[in-house]
Each structure stands twice: as C-alpha cells, then as structure tokens.
C-alpha cells in the first residue's frame, strides 16, 4: 500500500489496505486469481499454501486489527485451528455463552479426552480470573453470541498472561472498529468473516490475526497442513464487503441503539439486552411461542440465522439444539441492518401486536 502510514484512520484503512500498487495499468482491486498451482520456484507454489486474492483480504484485515491475518474457510475452521494448539489435557477457560459452535468444539474435544473445558461467566472478571491457574488458553468472546455479555478484555488478557495462558479474542461482534484486542495484549484475534466483515450474507469465511511471527508461522503451518483455506471468490467478496465496513457499522449501530431504546420502552419483553454498542440486540419474550410469532410476522425482518449483514435478520436462538439451556427459550437475537430505522420499527411494531 502506498504511503503506509500507521496513523491512518480505520475508515481510510478499510478503503485502501490490500490494494495493488498505484502503477500504470494495475487494477484498483486485487483480481480474482483462480489457481491451484503456480510456476515453481517462487513464494506461492501451490493453491493450498497461498493465493494473491486471499493475501489482499489478509493485508486489509491485518492492517485493521494491527497484526498479520490468516484467512480460513470459516469462522469455525479458525476456531478449530486455535484449539489444535492446546496440548493434550490442556485447560481451556471459555465463556459459557460463547458461540455455540465454539462451545460445541470444546465439548467434543473434551469428550474425546483431548482437553478440559472450564466454562465461565465472561462478564464476571473475578470469577474468570479464579479459574485461570492451570489454564493453557483463555478464550474470550465479547460481546457474547447471543447473550451479549461484555468482558473486560484488557484485565482478562493481563490475568491470562500472568497465569501463563495464551489469550484468544473472538472479535466477531465488536469488529476492529470498536475493539482491537491485539492492542490490549491478546495473542490471537478470531473472526467469523461471514458476519460484519463480509457483511452481505453471501460468504462463509473466517480469519485469525496475530502479531507474533512464530505464532503466525505455527498457524499458517496448521492451515497448510489441514487445508482449511478460503475460496478465492469468497476472499474477493469478503474484501469487497470490507470496503464499506465503517459505513455499515456506523449505520447499523445507530439503528440498533434507536431500536434498543424503543424496544426497552415497549411492554412486550421480559428483557432487552443491548451492550451500548454494535448492531446486535437480544430481546426476551415471555414464551417460545410468542418469540416464534414475532419472527414469523414481519415483512422486512428476515427470520434467518447469522448476523452482521446489510439486511435486518432475527431468530429465536433456542430453536438450535446446541444453544446453551441458560439462554431463555423466548430470546430472539436481532441483527440490525442498514435500512431506514422507521421502516424497521414499523415492521416490528405491527408484529409485536400479534405476540
Ligand atoms: C458465526 C460465529 C462463529 C462461527 O463462524 P462461521 O463463519 O459461521 O464458521 C464464531 N464466532 C462467533 C461469535 C460467531 O458469531
């Protein structure tokens, strides 16, 4: 990137990082380079090791998070790659309300005798610290999906390192625009690129970002060996989506804050959870039935899983078998998009009348 100034604002980095050089006849965007193999003797060699389209995405995300990024085939492929680093019988301390796939992997690895998972309330800093003594890895997700608990990332990173644990932060909900875990000392940042980074409900992809060269090499070596690589087209779409991250997050966050305020004043809910930033709200209806009526009574809001896209989506989380039983049956996770907030509210208001 020309003029590689570290002081650039994230809004500029998002637009400029990972572009070809400003030279005659260079395209402005990294091309979609479909290749399984390259002429021998260079840096790329084979399509499982490298691809210039992934590299462009990695360069942009690395610049945003302040480290070096590795793209993966999905967020869960990135989760699996990190958990692979934990030695036999290693202890992993993780949020009890982490993403259900992350919890699922921990549970499965524990059942196979690979490691020990200790699940904690990640918002209760003292309780987390109390479990860190024997930990090999502290897993932070903040805000959590879908409970929206917020962790004291800086304090937990310090405590994790004091206890000799590595620390990974799943930064999917906050995005690097709101939280930069590497600056807070974390060893690894994890993303489901599928969500806010790509942002258009058309890509499944994941990423890890680190600062330490040795750790980068280990994770890259793991990806080379296991082959959990992203598709070339997906990488291109993810980078295309990333270019507007700041605008999308700004708008969807403003919409979410306004909707959270109105939902809190509405009488229909046992609880409205909004951490005060981000674009995800969780509302708790009195029953699963009322939640199902809500998610089936709208015309703009789409009943669908996933989050972080331009369009507003929502779902009752307990419809998934793997969701923690401590998540209320009537909890609906709402991912607020970038539409007009009055249109979103009118659609919700008429649906709420039916619950
Ligand atoms: C969706 C999600 C994941 C998993 O990512 P995929 O891209 O779906 O594999 C991990 N963490 C969080 C917080 C998520 O929301």
Automatic annotation (TrEMBL):
Enzymatic class: lyase
GO cellular component terms, semicolon-separated: cytoplasm
Family of this protein: Belongs to the trans-sulfuration enzymes family.
Cross-referenced PANTHER family: CYSTATHIONINE GAMMA-LYASE (PTHR11808:SF15), TRANS-SULFURATION ENZYME FAMILY MEMBER (PTHR11808)
Pfam families, alphabetized: Cys_Met_Meta_PP
Protein name, per record: homocysteine desulfhydrase
GO biological process: cysteine biosynthetic process via cystathionine; transsulfuration
Reactions listed under catalytic activity: L-homocysteine + H2O = 2-oxobutanoate + hydrogen sulfide + NH4(+) + H(+); L-methionine + H2O = methanethiol + 2-oxobutanoate + NH4(+)
Gene3D superfamilies registered for this protein in UniProt: Aspartate Aminotransferase, domain 1, Type I PLP-dependent aspartate aminotransferase-like (Major domain)
Cofactor dependency: pyridoxal 5'-phosphate
The keyword Transferase appears for this protein: yes
Keyword Transferase in record: yes
Superkingdom, taxonomy of origin: Bacteria
EC number from the UniProt entry: 4.4.1.2
Organism of provenance: Nocardioides islandensis
N6-(pyridoxal phosphate)lysine modification, residue list: 195
Keywords noted in UniProt: Pyridoxal phosphate, Transferase
A GO term, aspect molecular function: cystathionine gamma-lyase activity
